[in-house]
Amino acid sequence: MMRILITGATGQLGEELQRLLPSLGEVVAAGRELVDLEQPDRLPAVVQGLAPDLIVNAAAYTAVDKAESDAERAELINAIAPGVLAIAARQLGIGLIHVSTDYVFDGSQSHPYQETDATHPLGVYGGSKLRGEVAVRNHCDHYCILRTAWVYGARGKGNFVKTMLRLGAEREEIRVVADQVGSPTWSYHLATAIAQLIPHFSRDLAGTYQFTNSGVASWYDFAVAIFEEAAVLGFPLKLQRVIPITTAEYPTPARRPAYSVLSCAKISAVLGTYPPHWRLGLRQMLQDLKAPS
Length: 293
Hints:
Layout: E1 2-7, H1 12-20, E2 25-30, H2 43-50, E3 54-57, H3 71-92, E4 95-101, H4 124-139, E5 143-148, E6 151-152, H5 160-170, E7 173-177, E8 181-182, E9 185-186, H6 187-197, E10 207-210, E11 217-218, H7 219-233, E12 241-245, H8 265-271, H9 278-290
Parallel strand pairs: 1-2, 1-3, 3-4, 4-5, 5-10, 6-9, 7-12
Antiparallel strand pairs: 8-11
């Protein structure tokens, strides 16, 4: 039976992977107490001791704005540790699936980014994730880098959907940026793609892939859809208006790509199916969130 090590097991993606991957083998779900990416020098011995057949690195430093003033920690978790995991995977002769981000791009183009398009991150977070990609490629020949974007889920810590629901219950009016465009991605759909990829995963398929839900939205579009779907499901909402604003009207420490839609054609060809639309993912996530635990 395959033994799969999941790092970042308590995050929103890691939680979904824990639910889906047991059908493929024995799962070792590792949080920071077992696999701490802030201490990369300890990783080789830990991985060696766990003796997995596959590593799925779902751990990351994802606080985009905080990273601007916490660059050393972002670098440890997003850049250095993935390289160490890649070396450990190579030494054990096993595969590594490493989750990356749309923020490796600068958002200057107006059509979906291919895996081969030039990268140019705008901030510390994107830069650290890009260096993690490079480290994985350099140190392991049995790898899959899987870029994704705008991830949210019912489990794990806060995300855009949960924030909107909280604000919508507290306020009558919310202002949301309308000039940043991407593809909202439900963590369960992302985890499902990883689960579907694993049986195909071989050295012949090593490379960089991208997976998001299909369709395109601005953060404003996404917020409006959240409130429409939440109202149907009976979430408590005080909200009356969602007002579109520009990025300039909502300055943040980190610059974000204005357009970060990713092409999913490459992974769709491997899996034989195209990602579900983001609105379907949102509806199902809210139903999941609403359901009794």
